[in-house]
Amino acid sequence: MNLMYHSTRNKSIKVTASQAILQGLSPDGGLFVPETIPQLSKSVEELAGMNYRELAYEVLSKFLTDYSEEELKDCINKAYDDKFDTPEIAPLKKVGKMNYLELFHGATIAFKDMALSILPHLLTKAARKNNINDDIVILTATSGDTGKAALAGFADVKGTKIIVFYPKDGVSRVQEKQMVTQKGDNTYVIGIKGNFDDAQTGVKKIFNDTDLKEKMEKAGYRFSSANSINIGRLVPQIVYYIYAYMEIYKRNELKSGEKINFVVPTGNFGNILAAYYAKKMGLPIDKLICASNDNKVLYDFFSTGVYDRNREFFLTISPSMDILVSSNLERLIYHISGEDTQKTAELMQALNNGGRYEISTDMRTNLKDFCGGYATIEETKKAIYEVYKETGYVMDTHTAVAAAVYEKYFKNDIDPAMTVIVSTASPYKFSESVLEALGIENIPEDDYEQAKLLREVSKVPIPGAVEELNNAKIRHTRVCKVGEMKAQVENILKII
Ligand SMILES: *Cc1c(COP(=O)(O)O)cnc(C)c1O
Question: Around Cβ 220, how many Cβ atoms within 10 Å?
C-alpha cells in the first residue's frame, strides 16, 4: 500500500508521493501532507550503525513509497556525493558543551543544499513514473540563497532546465556572483529591473499563463517549482535530525530513549517542521525551539496564539530569515488542529484576507512541543563574538540567532549537552557581518579579501564554493524589465 498525500485544506485531493513532488502545491492552494506519519521501525543501535546515505534511504523509503528501492538509492547517491566537502554530509560539531549540526557542507554552503541537491533527481524520476516525457522547466524567483542552491542542484540534470529571476540591484554581491557564474548548459539566470516581489509576481503570472502553457506543451515542456513547500524538500530534511541524535548516542552521552532539544533558526518554517516530523516518527526529541530575528512573527505566534503579518518588516544581518509569511506553518496548523482540513482552510483564508488569524485554546495545547524565541541584531552579533571568544568557533549570522535564543531563554533550564544548535550557513557566506560582529576593524571591501581575513580568524579553510568565485567566469548577463519576463522565457525555450 502506498502512503498517500492530501491537501491540508481538503482530504479528497489525494495523490502519491511522486505526484505531490511534481505538483509542488495542491490545486486548492493547500500543501500536501502524508495521510499518516511513518514510524521509525529500526532500533537505535541499528540506526546508529548507518551512514548518512543509508539513513537517508531508511527515511525516504518510508515516505516516498511509490519510488522503487533502486530509484531512491540512485537519487541519494547522486545527491550526497563529493559535492559535499565531508563524507559525513551533516557533521555534528561539539564546541564546549554545545552541539552544532553543520548543514552547510554542500555546493552553496547553506542548508538549502541538503534538500535541493536531491530534489532534481526525485523530480525527474517522478516525471518518468507518471508517464510525463516533457522536459521539466524549473522557474524560480529568488532573493538570493534559494536561486543559487536550485541552480546548483539542477545544473546538467538531464530532462530539466532551470530559469532563475533575481532583483538586479536587490541581492548581495556574493549572491549575485554565485548566480551569474553558474555552470551548466541548462541553467539561465536573469536579473530584473525591479524588486523581489516583482520577480515573484512575474513568475506566478508565467505559471498561470494558459497561452504560454499551450505553447509549452506543444514544444514538450512543463513547468515545476523548487520552492520550500514541496514535500520533496521537506522529507530529505528529516534525515539529519535522526543523524544528529545518533551521533550523540554513539558518543555514549545518551541513556536509552533519552530526549534531546533542537534550536532552529527559522524563516519559512521548513527546517523546523522536518524536526517535528522526526519527532512524530518516534525520534526522542523534547523541545523544538523556533528562533527568529527581529521579524518575530513566529515568536509572537508561539507566545500568544495569534499570527499577524501586519507589522513593520526589518532588514537584518540574517536575511534568509527576513520573512513575515512562513508558508510551511500551514502544515503545523493542520496537525495541531487535529488534522482538521476545514479549520486549516478557514485560518489560511483569514491570513489571506486580513493577514491575521488566531488559534483556539485546544490548538495552543497541541503546540507544547515548541518554544519560540527571538534575537535582535545586537544580540546576534554578541553571540558570534562571545562564542568565538570562549571557544574559537565562528558561527554565521543565522546560526547565531539560534545560539542567542538559547542563551537568552534556555541556558538555565536546558542542558547544553542535550541541545543541538542547527547551523544553517557557513560564516563565509556572510563574511562581512561576521567580521563586524567579531569586532574586527578595517574590513576590506573585496569579498575574497574578507574571506582570507575570516580564514585567519577562524582557522577554518575557505570553502571551495568561495574559492571558485574568486576567478570564476561570468556566464549569465541577461537583464530585463519586469514586463519582459515572459518573453525571456519564450526566447530561452525557443517557443516564440
Ligand atoms: C532558508 C534559511 C533559513 C530558514 O529556513 P526555513 O526552512 O525557511 O525556516 C535559515 N538560515 C539560512 C542560512 C537559510 O538559508
Answer: 11
Q: Nearest CA to 232 among 21, 65, 70?
A: 21
Residue 248 Ramachandran class (φ > 0 left, ψ -120 to 50 alpha, else beta): alpha
Question: For residues 345, 346, 349 and 350, what is the CA-based torsion angle, rounded to 10 degrees?
Answer: -150
Fold assignment, 92-108+232-463: Rossmann fold (3.40.50)
Domain boundaries, the chain: 92-108+232-463
Instruction: Give me the catalytic one of 14, 62, 73, 112.
Output: 112
pLDDT tens digit sequence for 274-305: 999 999 999 999 999 999 999 999 999 999 99
Q: For 300-316, give the DSSP string.
A: HHHHHSEEE--S-----
Nearest CA to ligand 1 atom 8: 268
Q: Which pTM was predicted?
A: 0.94
In tens, the pLDDT along 33-52 reads: 999 999 999 999 999 999 99
Which residues surround ligand 1 with Cβ inside 6 Å?
110-112, 145, 228, 265-271, 320-321, 398, 424-425
CA of 360 to the centre of ligand 1 (A): 28
112 is catalytic: yes
